[in-house]
Known about the structure:
alpha+beta, 2 domains, two-stranded antiparallel sheet, 17% strand
Amino acid sequence: MDLKEAILGRAEGKVDAVGFAPVDRFDDGPEAHHPSRICKNAKTVIVFGNTVPRGMLLSPDYSLYMLHRTYHSVYERLNELGLMLSNWIESQGNFLAVPIPSFAPLVYKGMEPWGVLSLKHACVKAGLGAFGRNGLMHNPQFGTLLRPGAVVTSAELAGDPLIEDDPCPETCDACSKACPSGALQEDGTFNKMDCLGYLVKHAIYPLALKSEAGLKNIERVINTAGYNYWLTCNECLRVCPSNSPKKSRSG
């Protein structure tokens, strides 16, 4: 059994999807967030994900409550898997492996948050999906409900085929019509900061980030006190045809 096959075996039953991306697929991205800046002698990014249940989107009264808890629950599970998988890979030979957090810590450029590695881009580069008009990664089976984690490793593993097809129906504008923040434009433009400013709330933000010291240390505030944030919107998830029962639970 080769290493890639063994990794798939280790992940089986723990995640809903796994993909592999050679690091050269990330050469067109930000240099500061290239996998080689994360793991010495990086060769491969292993991306995996768990889906969250459609039922939370349709809950008559508690949809946002369930969205909050399912997201934070799956983050913990993916982080645990990344740690386990990294340690296991290093036990198999002279390899290095670094688990990528499924959410925090984030890196701030001004007031804009960036992941250490963009996981939705990693999903696309590992063949787990393609970008839709709502700025989210669409998986052929799980739509936009797949939450990702990753491991960057010095082990050289074969990459998986990319998905080239546009996941959005040609005339679909459901997400831009439903978006209350105006972050999704009909021409396909997606403004991340408009979305995040409307979407993400936390009780500590108005206190910690209103002072000069709080803003100066925004990474420390968000990555510690602000980790378990609240979500105020799920409209693009709720109306997306990719998340229909037929799409998200086939196979």
